[in-house]
Every structure is written in structure tokens, then in C-alpha cells.
Amino acid sequence: MAFAITQTCCADASCVSVCPVNCIHPTPDEPDFGRTELLYVDPDTCIDCGACADACPVDAIFPAGDLTGPLQVYAEINAEYYAGRDVLAEATVAPNFHRWTPPAFTRILPSDFAALDVAVVGTGPAGMYAVEDLLLHTDARVTLVDRLPVAGGLIRYGVAPDHPSTKKIGETFARFHDHPRLRLRLGTEVGRDVTAAELAARHDAVVYAVGATGARRLGIPGEDLPGSLPAAVVVGWYNGHPDVAPGAVDLSAERVVVVGTGNVALDVARILTADPDTLAGTEIAPAALTRLRSGKVREVVLLARRGPETAAYTRPELLALAARPDVDLVVDNHDPRIGQAIDAAEPGDKATLLQGLPRETVDWSSPPPHGRRRIVLRFHSAPVEFTGDTEVRGVRASGAAGDVEITASRVVRAAGFRGAPVPGLPFDTGTGTVPNTAGRVEGLAGTYVAGWIKRGPSGGIGANKACARETVGVLLEDAVAGRLPVRRRRAGLASKLLGRA
Ligand code: SF4
Question: What's the CATH code, domain 3-90?
């Protein structure tokens, strides 16, 4: 019986490099990697050795025969990926080249970097993958900086508390906090406690992995009314983020509208409708749990501009939501295109996930029904305005029969994240990123970026591994080539040793 990769896959490919028969795809060398929602085991070639399960940082891999309940479908999902395709023919490089070390790593003698001092700003996934590469593949010393008093970034403050397997990857990263070549500087903010110029002067190189913590604006009237919250505030609230007050989220409303259908929107909907007893014992902030216990939310409405065939959520997250025993998932059938897309969906299409779910044409002027809590998916509907005078009273949203007002006194904006400027670094206000080439910050030699501040807010935890590795690779190339300003003389010597100067 083959193994299968399941819902919590972080796609960082730790399993790929340990598989002795190269049967986990897409690998980092293949076109689908970076876009894929999860990795898949080929059941025809898997030899059941279990090495991948041991290596998985989020406990997502199991023998297919042991899968039960909502996870059973993953045996089929893994096999489906391989149906009718020759993955090795699709690979852009030779099989097993994924046991891969970036070109810069292989060209560099570790002894050249015995004294390389690198500052990494940010303790989230991108920063920690960069730290991992620097500590494991070079002899560099690392100063790890975070503006918050607790390390962990997105893993600690972004992953929902009912996803303990995903949070487990934080343990993998935390083992580096005590590494003898790492100094941890928490509660240190660039621009407040230290300037970018000071960091650059004290280190051979600086890698900024500060994420994208701002919210993308909707640009509609009423967006800033009290009662309208960015998703980051709600996520920070239930995770106990130091910047978010314990009372920041008021749950006295029966209906909450969430603008967006990405995984963050699903996280918010899931937590707000959860039976609080199921969250006790997780890492949820105690104040949030107390408030959920006394909250009145009975319905969360997810608004999507587009149709069910292009919804932003990933398949594993929607499958998990649909499998919840305590909450109903309903599709608002206000537009004929919705039913058509669901009914006509072929295997593999995203809209198939909604087949079998109840559909109803919801009367938004009425309060949510009593009884079980529910989550309503409303596709082909864009928010036009948040109504209300002194606080949000509802959301005017487009629909097939014209605009409707959805009565709701709380709205969560989950339309995407946006990077914020770092004092002392260039910033592209259009993309919300620091302008860079493969991680090298334009116009600032010795300064690098990784993660969402480098490439924009897309891709999950695992996508940061390849991203950080690219950045560390160019950093090392620059060191060898003598392009690091503080280290020019030493790197020049290294280049000569390598016959490159
Ligand atoms: Fe590869 Fe072994 Fe995992 Fe099968 S069980 S996918 S052979 S590592």
C-alpha cells in the first residue's frame, strides 16, 4: 500500500529529497512546483519505505490504507495527479536532480565563509529557510532579528490554531534559535531600534524576510467604518498577536461577511463558526476563546467576485471545511452561472468540490436561520459599498438580479495582503515589494530580500523554501565575486582561491 500526502501539506519538498525512488512530485525543478496546492505520491512507484513521512515537517504523509474519514479522499487525489501523465518527461531537468544544491552553494568552499556575518530580519518561514541554508550549508554566523518579542512570524501568528500540524513546522525552525552560530535579537525593529544602514555596516550581508502584513484595499465607500476589519486583525486576534488588542474583534453580530475566498478567508470563517470546545487546548489566544464562547455569530458569508471554477481557496482547505460535522456549508444560488459551473464541472475542476452541497437563494434582508451554524459561499458577487453611518450596517453586493444589501454589522476584508515599506530600503508602491533581482535589492549591494516582501503575497509556507534558497544562493555568489561592500577584501581573496579573479 502506497503512502499519500494529505491536507496539511506545506509543499516545502522536504519529503522529495528523501524519497529513494523519486515518486513525489512536483519536485522543485518541475513547472508545477510553486503553483501546486500540495505534493503527490505516485502510488504505482512508491515502495512504502516511510522515509517521506519521517521527513515531513507538518505530519501530512500517511500510508494510504490508514487514511480515515475526510482524509480518505487523499489516496485518490494523489493517484489522480499521475493519471495520464509522464512526470519525468515533464521535468525540466534529469530525474533526481531535485536532490539539489543551488549552483552557488556547490561552487563555494565552506571555509571561505568561516567569518561571513549575515543578519536575517524576520523569523517567519522565509527568514528561517534562509537561516537554515546559511547554518547548514555554510559556516556563516547569523544575527536573527524580529520586531516582535516572540519568534515565529507567520507560523506563530498567521496559521489558524485548529491547524496544529501546520504549526508544527515552527518546531523545525525553532531548533535553529539555539544554534551556536546564531544570535537572536527579538523586539528589535528596523527603523525604530536599528537602522538599515547600521545593520548593513555591522554585517557582510542583510536578508530582509519581513513578509507582507498590510491589507490590500477594496477602494469602496464605507471600507473604514467601525466594524470593518482587515483579516490580519482577526487572524492576529485569535493567535494572540502582540499588536492586536484582545478585544479587537466584536462577535455580537449574528452574521459576519468576509470579502474573499482565499484560505485566509476560510480560516476566519472556520474559527468564527467553530464550536469553542473544539478550540480549547489549541494555541488559540485565551481572550479570543472566551469571546468565541459568548459570541453570537451564526452565519459567515464569503463573498467572491468570480465563479466557483476559479475560487481562491485550495482544494484541501475547502474539502476540510465541507467535512466539518458541526457547521453547514451552503452555496447561494442567486446566479444561474453558479449551478451551471458546479453541475458541468469535470473531475479535477475546482467547482467539483461544491457538488453535493446544498444550494439556496438566500433572503439577505432576514437574519440568519436558527439552528446549526453555517457558512454561505456567494460567488459572482463583488462588494460595492459597506453601508452604515457610524458603523457598518451591511454590505451592498452585486448579484445576478442587481445589487443586494446583506445585513451584517461586522465585515472582514480578506482580499489579499500587501507588503509595507522598510525604512532605508527602496519600495515599489505598485507591487508592495522591495525591488529586487532574484533577491538582490536594487541599488543596495549586500542587501537581499526573501519571501513575500521579495515576490509579493502569494504561495504558502513551502514556497518560501525555494525562494529563500535562491536569495542565499545569490548572496553567496556575491560574496565570492567580491560584491559584498563590507567584505570586499576577504571575498576577493576567496575569488582568487577559486580561480575566478
Ligand atoms: Fe517515496 Fe518511501 Fe514516501 Fe513511498 S514511502 S513516497 S517510496 S519516501
Answer: 3.30.70.20
Residue nearest to atom 3 of ligand 1 (CA): 52
Q: Which one-letter amino acid corresponds to residue 492?
A: G
- Upstream peptide bond of 246 is cis (omega within 30 degrees of 0): no
Beta bridge partners of 22: none
Strand, coil or helix: 62: strand
Query: 18 exposed, middle or buried (CB, 10 Å; 0-12, 13-18, 19+)?
Result: middle
180 burial level (CB within 10 Å; 0-12, 13-18, 19+): exposed
Choose the residue to mutate in 9, 19, 81 for probing ligand 1, maximizing ligand atoms within 8 Å of C-beta.
19
State the CATH class of domain 102-213+419-500: alpha beta
- The CA 134 to ligand 1 mean position distance, Å, reads 28
Task: Identify whether the C-beta of residue 290 lies closer than 8 Å to the C-beta of residue 436.
Answer: no
Among 65-74, 110-119, 245-254, name the one with the lowest average pLDDT: 110-119
Residue ranges matching CATH 3.50.50.60 in the chain? 222-416
Ligand 1 centroid – CA 265 distance (Å) = 33
Tell me how far the alpha carbon of residue 127 lies from the centroid of ligand 1, in angstroms: 29
**Multiple choice CATH, 222-416, 3.40.50.1010, 3.40.50.920, 3.50.50.60, 3.40.50.300:** 3.50.50.60
What's the pLDDT tens digit per position in 439-482?
999 999 999 999 999 999 988 898 899 899 999 999 999 998 98
Instruction: Give the residue, out of 1, 5, 18, 23, with the most ligand 1 atoms within 8 A of its beta carbon, to mutate for a pocket test.
Output: 23
Q: Which residues line ligand 1 (CB under 6 A)?
A: 3, 18-19, 21, 23-24, 41, 46-52
Three-state secondary structure string covering 215-266: ECCCCCCCCCCCCEEEHHHHHHHHHCCCCCCCCCCCCCCCEEEEECCCHHHH
